[in-house]
Amino acid sequence: MGNAFSTEVIVGAILSSGAATRREPPSKTGVLKDSFWERFDSRTLFYDVVSLSPTRFRLFAPPLFNLASILKERLAGLAFEKLAIGQFHSFDTIDIKVGAGGHQATCAFFEKEFGLTASEMDSTTFSRKRVLYTLSKNNDPAWIKDWMHFHHVNHGSDAVLLCDNGSEQYDCEGLLDELRSVNGYNAIKVVLADFPYMPALDSCRNPHACLFVQSAMINLAATRGLRPARSVLACDIDELVLPHGGKSVFRQTEASILGTVAFNGRWTYPEDNQIVAHASHYMVQPDSPVSRSKYCFRPDSYMGRGELDVHTIHGGLRNQILRQLSKISAFSYIHCHDISTAWKWSRNSKSFDNLTKEQSIKQTLESAFPRPK
Question: Are 182 and 316 in contact (CB under 8 A)?
Answer without folding.
Answer: no
